[in-house]
């Protein structure tokens, strides 16, 4: 597979540095990449409709339109493109959370840290393509893993909450065996996908869509450790 990676930065020196790092990462991981470079947010938007990027390295401090504004535009347009923010300051961390950025890297970019984040991004791209098949009432449903927010069990029935809710009579343990490390069982009746988690407290897990689910006693530390390992 060829991964298409965009670099949007208004400084030529930074463009070349990031491009060299991406090429070095691709060589070390035996990946093929196509790199697109944009000198401003405006030049990126000019080609937006024809872009098919897998990842975007986005500088925050640019000209008339900054990186945060561009990221917000992409999210409003329902584009789920993984974004890695690049900045010389830590002041914009909150903005990164607001647009669900994959990560926030400070300049000068550390090569090893960037490589780690790029590997995470590739995992996310792979997740985009994966599907699970569920049979309910004689109908087989194909569900993208990335769209599964959480799975719950009530009595003998399991409900998969994705773009639609699919209810089936099947043991939760059978469903759990189909899932990878991006899922975590937060309580006897609930399994959550880590990518959908917005906030964790001692008593509950809050998802990006503001759904609140109970967190079992003793699961708080384990969930945080799983988040660190996976994300």
From TrEMBL:
4-aspartylphosphate: modified positions: 59
Domain Response regulatory: 4-122
Domain HTH LytTR-type: 132-229
InterPro entries per record: CheY-like_superfamily, LytR-like, LytTR_DNA-bd_dom, Sig_transdc_resp-reg_receiver
PROSITE patterns xref list: HTH_LYTTR, RESPONSE_REGULATORY
Entries under Pfam families matching the protein: LytTR, Response_reg
Protein name according to UniProt: LytR/AlgR family response regulator transcription factor
Organism (species): Enterococcus lemanii
